[in-house]
User: Fold this.
Amino acid sequence: MSEVVFLLVPKLHLLDLAGAAQVFSTAADVLPSSRGSACYRLRYVADDPEVPTAQGLAVKAETAWPKLGADDLVMVPGWRSPGTAGGPRLSASQARNLYDHHRLGGTVASVCSGAFALGQSGLLDGRRCTTHHDLQEELARRFPEASVIRDVLYTEDDRVITSAGIASGIDLALHLVAVRHGPAVAARVAREMVVFARRNGDEPQASAMLRHRSHLSDAVHRVQDRIDAHFTKALPLPELASATGVSQRTLTRQFTEATGLTPLRYQSLLRLERAEHLIGQGATVDAAARAVGFADARMLRRLRAGAAA
Assistant:
């Protein structure tokens, strides 16, 4: 049995903790047991027996650090306000325990601002890491020896694994399950959790659906809703304009002003992003092109080449 130890700090985010914990708990349910024991045992440790969360619900924890081996994992969920003025710091014993666990062959991981805890322990020096997109500059400033990778879901460098914001902890945990038990087991865990798909670590933190939503045009948001829901289908501009109640010319102008893209270009980005995910999961370019609505793979290849240029 492997121990999965969550190191809890005050004001931790519940989803940072619960998302990853659910993955390992579900993995323990779906994997065959050995002599009646689950493959994972979850533990929660902190300096105090009760830890307040950012969402107002206190959680219980052990105060004694468990004895761990190289097969065990220590994970640090993120917390609110990790900046220089408001972020909590690990105690000296917590930082030492993290560092020693890694030094003795164990794996250490973080979710969101939990990367700051790994930095305080010296585990980010000389290593690739990431965190929530709003915190990346601060992480790089506070730990200049770290190599902060922008706009990825998670990084892995010599048994130090860091993930981006909040829900990406689920992707990180599914990745660890896939590494240990194979992608089929990780896929089964994802299905049990009703997670749409296990994302690769190098996928962007903000999808195209999110990157082009920071505008105030209700009409354009309605068009985006329609494209988001049906991007694998043909969506002629006259049909989109009619559904919005404006002329084609007006729709194109408003959409471009709000997003920097034409409706067709926005739809192509969604198709490309989904196709890249499918290819990353093992699909051929031809199969991915058909799945996202292209008649053949030529357009997908052109889009991929343009994105790489």
Q: What stands out?
A: The chain is about 45% helix and 10% strand. The mean pLDDT is 87. The longest helix spans residues 263-280. The longest strand covers residues 2-7.
